[in-house]
Amino acid sequence: MSADFVVFAQPSFDPNEYANAILAGEPYPPQSGKTKPAKSASFEPASEDVSVAISKLTFSIDDVEKQVKNVVTTHHEELLVQAAGVTELEGSLSSVSNGLNELDLSLEKYVSRTFRSTLQTHVSNLERLQQASDILRRMSRFVILTRRLEIQLAEMNKGEASDTADTPKSKNDADRPLSTLTHTDSALGNADEDEKERTISKAALTVAELTALLDNGPTDQRADTEEESNTGKRVSLTSIKAVAAHLPYIDAARARITTDMETMVITGLTTLNQSLLASSLQTAHNLRVLPELVQNLVTDLSDAVESRIRSAFDITRISKEVVAKDPASASPGVLYKSRVRTEPTNVTAPQWTAALWNSLESLIEEMADCCVKVYTLEKVLKLKRDTVTQIVFLDEAMKVLENKPSAIFWASLGRSLEKQARDSAKGSSFLQQALSSGYPRLLRLFQSFFSKIAVETDTVYTQAQQSPETVIVLRALSNFESLYLSRSSNRLNEAIGQAFSGGTRSPPGMAEGINIARTVANELDSAKFDPLLVRSVAKYITRSMELFLSRADSITTRERSAVTLVGPAATAQQVVNGQLATCLYHSWYRLQKLQDEYPEGVMSILKPGITNILSAFEHIVDPLLAAIRREVGAIIAKLHRMDFGQTADPMSAMSGGPSPYMKDVAEKLSFIKEEILSLLNVPDVSRQWIISIVKYVINTFVLHASIAKPLSESGKLQLTSDMTELEFSLSAFMSDKTQTKRGVDWDSIGDDYRALRAMRQLLFLDNTMLASPKHTIGLPPLIVLHHILVRSPIPLPHTLHGWAEAEYVKWVNEHSEEEAWTLVESDLTHWEKMTEVEDGDPAAAAEYIQLARAVLDNAAGRPGA
């Protein structure tokens, strides 16, 4: 190659560097060891023109291309042969590559097969070693546990031997003091028992570990899970002859421990020994059979109660028992033997009843024993815990049980009682009759059952509170309760029906009312001992009260003839209503006294019915009392038909008798007392009615007398005579034949009677004394005002407003005193204004206006009167 082209053939040739070197006039490639000359600041031309260099370069490239073309043209045959050889060489190389790959695979397979076989051999050997080690470890554990079990069984045998030897020893110690025997022997016995229980519990734990060991399970919770996953399936120890030889011994030991455990459980439940029961449950837990044991115990106790209930209600068993006790009551036939009777005769009924109640009493005793045992078992289960896991035994037992033992027992007891009670009532009329009529006695038995178990359980059955368990049991007897309540309701309805059997011709009176109330009280008293039964009876009594009221309402007369007071005798309707009101009152009077004997819960049921009876009584009496007031008020209003303003000889006026209207009042009061009020045989209420009527009569008369105008001196004397007659009439009206005290109790009338007495003095007072409270003491201010206006020319308020006297008196009774005073004051004001307008003489009434205003000021408590 030419020296000019050597530079281009260098591996480090860079065309950019070469071009820069040519432009800079520097050699290329730069020589090592020579520093690059510094560029001069001046732009001097290069030693060789660039265009010349480029021309040379172009020429050289063209020359290279020509030479390459010449070489290719000259040697193209050889080049083609070489190109074909390259293709063949690629195929050969591909074959070689495939052969090498196959060689690598063969080598890998060989190496893998060799190492895998070796590894499998080693792994198998390791597994066998581990399995052998596990077997040896379990064998070692088995030997240890077996020896421990032998020691524990030996201790158990020793304990039983000592218990057997204690009996003759105690006979030899018969001469020792009782206190010494009790203290020493009981302490030793308790210590031996505790030691024996601990030994049995330990032996049970040992047997449980041996069983787990023989069942290929871990002997404890510290088993290595990684070792188990590597060793695979364990070899059972039972396949080893040395172990198999001990299997009968282990089974016998387990059977013996189980038997001792069951004996301890039964003894603990029988004696209610919680310590012994706890030890037996611990033994069961160690044997891994605690849930099954508890389930079996609860099931056995429930089944025992169910069986005893079935036996108690078995009429065939009762029949056989009666026949066995009294063979003479059997059929007298010798050649013919009748079937077992399922119903008693009239002769044997008492024996059957006694046998039934004896059976039920025994049932209650056994139910109480079983219930206490269940609660004792549950109490111990709640207290005991696993010493390792701290799991409560009750939670452990709940893995199998559906509910707590006590809940299971109560549910089973309720179902059994309900089923047997229902079936027995359907199958035997004797049982239905005996238990429904004697239901209170049956309830007392169950109350004794609740009281017996209350000490050991959390059940409560009192008037204030009843546990859900007790309610469940008593609901099972609802069939007999319904029959008893039906009989109780029938007795009440019969008493009511008998009272109204006469209808309107012979209505019920005091005797019938007392009889109805007594029947109600008897029914409540029979159920008083039971809080639930007495409420049920009260509900049925309420229904009977509704019947009582409906029957009473059907014969009550509300016609005008029932309240008319024409006389001379009471109407038939008044007689019927009087009898009926007497019956209602005496029933109510005795029923309302029950609130002192029964709790609020019972009275809340009875109160609506009792209140309705009182309302029915008032609906009969109130219209009659209103008619009496209305009739007497109308007679007193006739006072204004009399002329009290005429002048006559005072002596002749004094000798005259009472006015005709007052005679009518006296006759009417006598008629009311003798004919009307006598129909109502209710002494306590009648006294109140009489006092109320007397007060009304006095108040009405005083009001009418105070507005009688004009009033002369003879008129005053006539009013005084009428007042005396009225007092005599009222005294006779108030008198009672049964009273021992002479005279009438006017103190009970109070201010009204004092106003009547003071009215006499008011009539004869001077004008100057009318405004003095000292002289008008006992009189209401309105009466004094009326009398002042009567003496004056000022018209009275009713005259000013155009009212009748009776209307004005009615208005005064319906409004307050202040309103009446205001009406009088407005009357005075109106008179003053009218006097000014009409130019009248104000001095004519000035004195009376001043007196009236003074009375108003005194009444209102205003100063300056």
Automatic annotation (TrEMBL):
It is a peripheral membrane protein. Its main location: Golgi. Residues 237-450 form the Conserved oligomeric Golgi complex subunit 5 helical domain. It is found in: Golgi apparatus membrane. GO terms for biological process: intra-Golgi vesicle-mediated transport. Keywords: Golgi apparatus, Membrane. This is Conserved oligomeric Golgi complex subunit 5. GO terms for cellular component: Golgi membrane; Golgi transport complex. The lineage of its organism: Eukaryota, Fungi, Dikarya, Basidiomycota, Agaricomycotina. Residues 158-176 have a biased composition (Basic and acidic residues). Residues 8-149 form the Conserved oligomeric Golgi complex subunit 5 N-terminal domain. It holds the Pfam family COG5_N. The keyword Repeat does not apply. Residues 158-198, 214-233 are annotated as: Disordered.
